[in-house]
Write a sequence for this structure.
C-alpha cells in the first residue's frame, strides 16, 4: 500500500470535517426531538418516523466519509462504516418502537400500531423502507465479503425485514393490491413484492447462519418464523399454492432442527 502523504491526509480531514459537522447537527436534532417526545407523547409515532429518516441520513454521511477515504487515501475507513452500522440500528429501533419487532404477528394485533401512523401514506412508508434498505446494503458493501460483521448483518437485515413488513397496513394493502384503479395500486404491489423478498432472504440467511456458523436453535427458529410470516402474506393475498409450499419448507426446517437437537448438533 502506498504511503499516505500529509497533503492527502489534510484533504481527507477537510472533507470528513464537513460531513462530521452535518452529523453533529443531525444528532443534536435527534436529541431535541426526543426531548419533545418525552414532554408530550402525542404524535410520537410520527416523530419516530422522522427520527428514523434522520438516522438514515446520518448513516449516508458516515458512508460518504468512507467514500472520501477510499478516494483520497485509498483505504477503507472502518470506523465510519461501523458508525453507520450502529446508527442504522437506531433507525430500525425507532421503527420497532412504532410497529414492534414481532416477526410472525397477526395483522389484527398491529391495528393500534397502524392507527398511530394512519396519516403516513403508503408511498412515504415505501420510500422510507427503500432508503433504509439501500443504506444497509451500502454499509454491507463497504465492509466487503470478508468482514467480521458478516453474520451480524443477518440480524440487521432481519430486523429491517420485520419493520418493513410491519409498517405495511395489510388490511388496506390487500384491497389496493387487487385494484388497478386504486391510486396506491402500483406502490402497494411494489411494497408487497419487496416485503416478500426481504422475508424470504432473511429466512434463508438465518438458516445459513445456523448451518454454517452458530448451530444455535434460535437462528433456525428465526428462519422458520420468517417463512411463516411470508406464508401469512401469501394467505392474505389468496395465494394458496405458494402458502402451501412455504408451509412444507417450514416443516422441513423444523424437522432438521429437531433432528439436530436429538443428535446434539445444535446449541
Amino acid at each position: 500500500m502506498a504511503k499516505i502523504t500529509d497533503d492527502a491526509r489534510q484533504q481527507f480531514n477537510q472533507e470528513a470535517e464537513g460531513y462530521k459537522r452535518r452529523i453533529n447537527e443531525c444528532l443534536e436534532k435527534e436529541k431535541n426531538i426526543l426531548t419533545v417526545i418525552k414532554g408530550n407523547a402525542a404524535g410520537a409515532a410520527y416523530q419516530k418516523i422522522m427520527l428514523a429518516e434522520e438516522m438514515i441520513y446520518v448513516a449516508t454521511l458516515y458512508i460518504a466519509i468512507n467514500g472520501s477515504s477510499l478516494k483520497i487515501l485509498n483505504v477503507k475507513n472502518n470506523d465510519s462504516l461501523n458508525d453507520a452500522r450502529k446508527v442504522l440500528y437506531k433507525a430500525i429501533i425507532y421503527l420497532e418502537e412504532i410497529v414492534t419487532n414481532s416477526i410472525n404477528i397477526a395483522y389484527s394485533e398491529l391495528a393500534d400500531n397502524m392507527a398511530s401512523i394512519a396519516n403516513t401514506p403508503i408511498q412515504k412508508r415505501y420510500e422510507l423502507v427503500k432508503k433504509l434498505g439501500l443504506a444497509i446494503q451500502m454499509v454491507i458493501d463497504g465492509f466487503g465479503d470478508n468482514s467480521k460483521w458478516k453474520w451480524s448483518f443477518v440480524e440487521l437485515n432481519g430486523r429491517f425485514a420485520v419493520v418493513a413488513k410491519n409498517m405495511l397496513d395489510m388490511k388496506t394493502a390487500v384491497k389496493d393490491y387487487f385494484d388497478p384503479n386504486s391510486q396506491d395500486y402500483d406502490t402497494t404491489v411494489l411494497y408487497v413484492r419487496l416485503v416478500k423478498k426481504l422475508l424470504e432472504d432473511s429466512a434463508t440467511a438465518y438458516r445459513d447462519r445456523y448451518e454454517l456458523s452458530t448451530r444455535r436453535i434460535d437462528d433456525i427458529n428465526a428462519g422458520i418464523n420468517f417463512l411463516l410470516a411470508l406464508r401469512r402474506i401469501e394467505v392474505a393475498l389468496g395465494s394458496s399454492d405458494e402458502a402451501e409450499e412455504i408451509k412444507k419448507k417450514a416443516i422441513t426446517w423444523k424437522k432438521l432442527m429437531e433432528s439436530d437437537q436429538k443428535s446434539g448438533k445444535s446449541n
Summary: The two ends are 42 Å apart (CA to CA). The chain has two domains: 1-132, 168-267. The chain has a mean pLDDT of 95.
